Amino acid sequence: MHPKALLDACATLVARVLKFDHPADAIVSRFFRENRQLGPRERATLAETAYGVLRKKLLYEHLARSGSGPRERRLAILGFHGPRDFLKSALNEQERRWLDACDGVKPEELMAPHRHNLPEWLAGPLQQQLGADFLPLAESLMQPAPLDLRVNALSAKRDEVRAALKKEGVQAQPTPHSPWGLRAEGKPSVNRLALFTNGAIEVQDEGSQLLALLLDAKRGEMVVDFCAGAGGKTLAVGAAMRNTGRLYAFDTSAHRLDALKPRLARSGLSNVHPAAIAHERDERVKRLAGKIDRVLVDAPCSGLGTLRRNPDLKWRQTPEAVQELVQKQGAILQSAARLVKPGGRLIYATCSVLPEENEAIAEAFGAAHADFRPQRAADLLDGLKVADAQALCAGGEDGRLYLRLWPHRHGTDGFFAAVWTRA
Ligand SMILES: C[S@@+](CC[C@H](N)C(=O)[O-])C[C@H]1O[C@@H](n2cnc3c(N)ncnc32)[C@H](O)[C@@H]1O
């Protein structure tokens, strides 16, 4: 495709994602369906340009004020993902001069919002929470996430999968903490590999893998993944159970559970029982009360720990929506807790970085449920031989209570988990 035509297409896509009427990934997929002639490289440029603009929206809007021509075109130029020479061949002389001037702006000359690129309602609390670590977090949230894979412990060994990937031209390193993880170099498309279609690998952030590991579900147990969605964690838990016992995958969205089915078929698991529930107090939940060994509540949340993958979320979320989620999270955790049998384990997890969706929910639950004893996540991870477990945790008197993962510290999405045992 000619550079000029590609830049025009980028500007069109940027205009669409900036409407925020749908999630950015859905808008990008739709754009590709409408433009089937686009090759893989062009698609990568288009998607990364749109995501680049979402990641640095405040900075680019600030710089775009000084340019000329349509605003979306200026934003697409600033966020363009590709060689500078290629981009410049699509620009007129005036645009080239303007881009050079923009490239010359030094970070120290910028105002804080143009450096962190977060909405004020989010920047303030994060700054308060993190202090000097705020800017490193903001910077890490503007980077694309690496491609993490989870090796299906039921059917494959990590070293063998790593060697097989290498033969396919995919270089991958073992993830630092998850025993099931491989971090691929670059952005290889793994979906067409036999390793993927035969269920030996799934795409899953290392942080998600650690949540499933923390549940430590054993052979033959009764386990509930209360908010299973498309089953990312369900699949990891089912494999950890060695395809024995019974693993219920609940979710209120039948549509999301449908997406679990082909993944289940690939995985070779037959111990998973997906079930759509009407709400967290569904009859099915009541029938299983007090019978379950391990319950994972991967609660619906703001998703603000996943901004590397979903940069549009920072512009689409609102403080009001977070408050609604907080109510929901408390209610779901309380209902799901009823399932746990005496001696059983309960985990509350989110992929948010906000204390109100994390520690506050865990503390309120703990205060109201004396029969649930908090467990130190770091002790459990040590027991599972996870390297540097202490460094992955925070909270409690000794900083070992909660799993607390951060992109700038751990290279994962932002995750939180609290663990209890029922007395
Ligand atoms: C964070 S996502 C789950 C992601 C999934 N565990 C995974 O690893 O891929 C939260 C899920 O909670 C579901 N959900 C929302 N309200 C719920 C409720 N009241 N009871 C159960 N699930 C609910 C949503 O449909 C969504 O799929």
From TrEMBL:
The active site is at 351 (nucleophile). Keywords: Methyltransferase, RNA-binding, S-adenosyl-L-methionine, Transferase. Residues 137-423 form the SAM-dependent MTase RsmB/NOP-type domain. CDD domains: AdoMet_MTases (cd02440). The keyword Aminoacyl-tRNA synthetase does not apply. Transmembrane segments: none annotated. PROSITE patterns: SAM_MT_RSMB_NOP (PS51686). The keyword S-adenosyl-L-methionine applies. Gene3D superfamilies: Vaccinia Virus protein VP39. One of its GO terms (molecular function) is RNA methyltransferase activity. InterPro entries: MeTrfase_RsmB-F_NOP2_cat (IPR049560), MeTrfase_RsmB-F_NOP2_dom (IPR001678), RCMT (IPR023267), RsmB-like_ferredoxin (IPR054728), SAM-dependent_MTases_sf (IPR029063). GO terms for biological process: RNA methylation. S-adenosyl-L-methionine binds at residues 251, 298. Belongs to the class I-like SAM-binding methyltransferase superfamily. RsmB/NOP family. PANTHER family: NOP2 YEAST -RELATED NOL1/NOP2/FMU SUN DOMAIN-CONTAINING (PTHR22807), RIBOSOMAL RNA SMALL SUBUNIT METHYLTRANSFERASE B-RELATED (PTHR22807:SF53). This is RsmB/NOP family class I SAM-dependent RNA methyltransferase. It comes from Xenophilus arseniciresistens.
